[in-house]
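Amino Acid Chain and Its Fold in Token Form
===========================================
Purpose: to set a sequence beside its fold so the mapping can be learned.
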Amino acid sequence: MRQPDYYYLNPHKNLPAVGTAVLVELDNDSSYPQISADMTQAIFRALQKRQIFSVAVIRQTDPAWRSLQVDADSPHTLDQMRAMRKALKSNAVLVGTVTTYQPYPHMTIGLKLKLVDLTDGQLLWAFEQVWDTTDKTTEKRIKDYFHDQIRAGFAPQAEQLVVVSSLEFVKFVAYEVAQTM
């Protein structure tokens, strides 16, 4: 299956060596408040299936995250990273934003994500992509995804479902995100 093209994977780091990571509920720049929770949950499940490292989800409203008072998009000091590592009991933090979401007239989701090593502050992985169901490349990847992931005989119906079901589209996007790690 062809993967998204625009991501960074640190060649000097071993992702399985991370051991544990926390996925912070995604920020949301769209006008659909539920999409960040749905996308966060889908990415969590997709990462669990990949079994690269142990992953847990923390909501932005969680006291453990709020007490850190860090901006997910800004650089962190060593003291902030040490505090995050201790408070979250994790070696890495995955943060990001749903940059765009449009359920109709055609589905579009944009994501910007980064995984930061809390032991040394290095960027382990970063990803930025927009999926649009009218795009031929996205359409081809949806077909490949369902032929690879769905039982024989169900793929054609599932392909159509992803174009009209936001939850199915979110699962597809999360799968693609996880495949880049």
Remarks:
- The chain has a mean pLDDT of 86.
